[in-house]
Amino acid sequence: MTSTTLQNPNTKRSSFARVPSAFRLQFAVPYSFIWLPMVIFVLAWAFGLGIGFLVDSQSPDRIPAEEPIHTTGAAQATIWYLAFMAAYTASHTFPFSVALSYSRRVYLIGTYLTFLVVSAGYGAAAMLAYWIERVTDGFGRHLYVFGSPSFENLGGALGVGCFGAVLALFFMCFGFFWAILYRRVTIPILWTVIIGVIVVILGAVALITINDWWINVGMWLVEQNAFTLAGWGLLATVLLGLLNYVLIRKATVS
């Protein structure tokens, strides 16, 4: 005996059913969010260590265990690339999604899921790099990009992974923000916002300097660890994500 289930033609399909498709849309070109970030991560790591080995070779009197070399700036390379790719996503896949009749809400949820997965991958890679550097004592010469001994008190491998993931997620939302703002407002308003942000930052720096608050800022930073910094970063990311939602609702695709 067989049975056949017929779908009621009047049944309305939820718009959220297309979220997985919007998520997969971001991986239509796999190298954008998978292979290139991995290559950049490895190359930047190798480049940072290469600089460390070069400095080490020019310091014959250096005692590695007492004078570790840190080239942590190399860890930023992948994050800046991901921020650029997030902006590229807003400028290229957003019009494509509209052409495919995705709602803006579904597209944004799918895009945020992509950002979340990619940033989690970056955090996991940072944890692995931290572990390798710590186990090998900085490749035998105390050279560190991700695994500085000073990070041990900030949360160790898990702290580095959490903070790295949140940082990547924030900058992806940040890059997405500027590209979607470009589609939402006119060029004069866009420049007004850019100048306004710069003025606010400079005003904050001036206010802190005039009132001699840099010591307070430093003390606040010293009291933080990787998890609390990740928490503040996550709060900023959520607020930025909500702002992106407000902007994309009326963003144009022309």
Could you characterize what this model shows?
Helices cover about 70% and strands about 0% of the residues. The protein is an all-alpha fold and about 250 residues long. α1 crosses α4 (about 105-135).
Key terms:
mainly alpha; single chain; 254 residues; 2% strand; 9 helices; two-stranded parallel sheet; globular; 2 strands
In short:
The protein is an all-alpha fold and 254 residues long.
Topology, pairings included?
Blueprint: H1 19-25, H2 30-57, E1 69-70, H3 76-99, H4 104-135, H5 138-142, E2 143-144, H6 156-184, H7 187-210, H8 214-223, H9 226-248
Parallel strand pairs: 1-2
Radius of gyration: 23 Å
Low-confidence stretches: 1-5
Shape: globular
Order of helices and strands: HHEHHHEHHHH
How would you write the strand order of the largest sheet?
1-2
- What's the helical proportion of residues? over 70%
Q: Would you report the number of β strands?
A: 2
Strand residue percentage: under 5%
Separation, N- and C-terminal Cα atoms: 56 Å
How many H/I helices?
9
Name the average pLDDT: 90
Main beta-sheet strand count, sense and barrel state: 2 strands, parallel
| Subunit arrangement of the protein | single chain
Coarse structural class: mainly alpha
